Amino acid sequence: MLEAFQTYIRDENLFAETDKLVLAVSGGADSMVLLKLFQQCNYEFCVAHCNFKLRGAESDGEEVFIRDYCGEQGIELFVNQFDTREYAQLEGISIEMAARELRYNWFEELRQQLNFDYLVTAHHRDDLIETMLINLSRGTGIRGLSGIQAKNGFVVRPLLFASREEILAYAESSKLPYKHDSSNDELIYQRNIIRHQIIPLFESINPAFRKNAAKTASILKETAAVYQQQLNGIFTGLKVEGEGICRLNIGQLKALQPQQSLLFELLHPYGFNAEQVQEIAGALDGETGKNFFSKTHRLVKDRTELLITKLDLPKAQRYYIDEDCKSMNEPVSMQFETIAKSPAFRFSTNPMVADLDFGKLQFPLILKKWEQGEYFVPLGMSGMKKLSDFFIDVKLSIPEKESAWILYSGKKVVWVLGRRIDDRFKITRDTQQVFHISLG
C-alpha cells in the first residue's frame, strides 16, 4: 500500500515533500493507517485529535490511545475536547453536522497557528461513494455527484485510492493497533444507513457496484471540469472583480438562460444557497438597495449591478463582568447592583433594565456581540427561539442586528441588551437575591 499511497500523492499533486502537514487522526483503522503510512515517508507532520465527548468512556479511551501512541512514537500531538451536544443545540443542527463544523473549524485554526500547509484526512474510496449517495439524496449538482475531492483548498485526502477493505487488510497485516468507533454501527445516522443497508442492496444487484460507483465519480469529476470551462466562457465580461467588490451586470444576468441555474453557479462560491439565489433572481427588477447576506458575503442590488462584498468578520470581542463589579463604560455604559429580594420587590419593565435571579448566574458574566445560530428563551415563553428570529420579530434593521450586544452566563443568553431577558434567569418567588443591571 505504501507505493500506491506515494504514487497517488504524486499523480494528484496533493502536496510537495517540503510541505508541513496536520494529520487528522481519530484512532480508527482509517486514520491509524494514514498515520502509519506518513511515518514511513519523509514528510514533516503533526497529529490533531478531537474528543467530541459523545460516547463517554469510549471517547476518552480513544484520546488516551492516541496520546499513548504518539508519545511512544515521538509524534507531536494536539488534542481538543468539545461539548458537541450543546453546540448542536445552540446551532440548531444535527450531532453529525456539529461534529463536522467543530473539527474542521479547529483543524483550520490549528493549521494557521502552526503555519502549516495542509490538513490531511483519512477519507477513502468508500467514503467517496457514501458521500456521492448522500448528495444524490439531497438533490445536488454535478460537483456533489463527483463525491469527495482529493484536494479541496487546504484539505487533502491521500487515501481516496483505497477501499475500506484494503485499509483494514493493511492494518491487520501490519499488526497496527486501532480503536473501533461504536457510533459507526448505529443506524440513527444517515451515513451509517447508506453504509450498512443501501450499499449492500446495490451490491446484491451488482457485486461490482463500489468499483463502478467510484469510476462514475471519476468521470463526473472530469465532466465537472468541462462544465466549469463552459461556465467561464458564458460569464466572460459579466463578472468584474476589483478593490474588494465583485460586480455583476444585471442586464446580462437577465439575459442568461437558464437564468436561475447560471445565477446559482455565479453566487454559490460566495456562500449563497439555492433559496437565496431564487430570491435574488426575483429581485433583479426590484428596488435599489435591497440586501442579501450569506455567512461570508453581502450582496446589494444597485441600479444596474449586483455588488458583492466580503463581510468583515473579526473575532468576537468579549467583556467579562465579575459579581462584585459596580459599573462599566466600554463597550456600553452599565451599572450593577446586588440586592436582597423583599416581599415588596417588583421587577422593572423598563427595557433598559434587567432584574435577574442572582443565584442562577454563573460569573463572570460575558458581554459580546451575538452570533448566527444562537438561541435563547424570551421572557414569557417556554421554548427556545433563535436570536435571528427574535430580531426579525422585533423588526430590527440590519445595522441594529449587527450592533446588538448580548449578555451571557456560561454559554446561555441572559439578556439581549435593551430588548428582552431570558426567561430562565427571571425573578421568581424562590429568588433570594436580585442582580440589577441598568444601561446608560
UniProtKB/TrEMBL annotation:
Presence of keyword Protein transport: no
This protein's UniProt keywords: ATP-binding, Cytoplasm, Ligase, Nucleotide-binding, tRNA processing
InterPro entries assigned: Lysidine-tRNA-synth_C, Rossmann-like_a/b/a_fold, TilS/TtcA_N, tRNA_Ile_lys_synt, tRNA_Ile_lys_synt_N
Any one of the GO BP annotations: tRNA modification
Q: What class of enzyme is it?
A: ligase
Ligand binding (ATP): S26, G27, G28, A29, D30, S31
Give the protein's function: Ligates lysine onto the cytidine present at position 34 of the AUA codon-specific tRNA(Ile) that contains the anticodon CAU, in an ATP-dependent manner. Cytidine is converted to lysidine, thus changing the amino acid specificity of the tRNA from methionine to isoleucine.
Q: Which PANTHER family does the record cross-reference, listed alphabetically?
A: TRNA(ILE)-LYSIDINE SYNTHASE-RELATED
Share the domain note from the entry.
The N-terminal region contains the highly conserved SGGXDS motif, predicted to be a P-loop motif involved in ATP binding.
Q: What is this protein called?
A: tRNA(Ile)-lysidine synthase
Q: Which organism is it from?
A: Mangrovibacterium diazotrophicum
Q: Which gene encodes it?
A: tilS
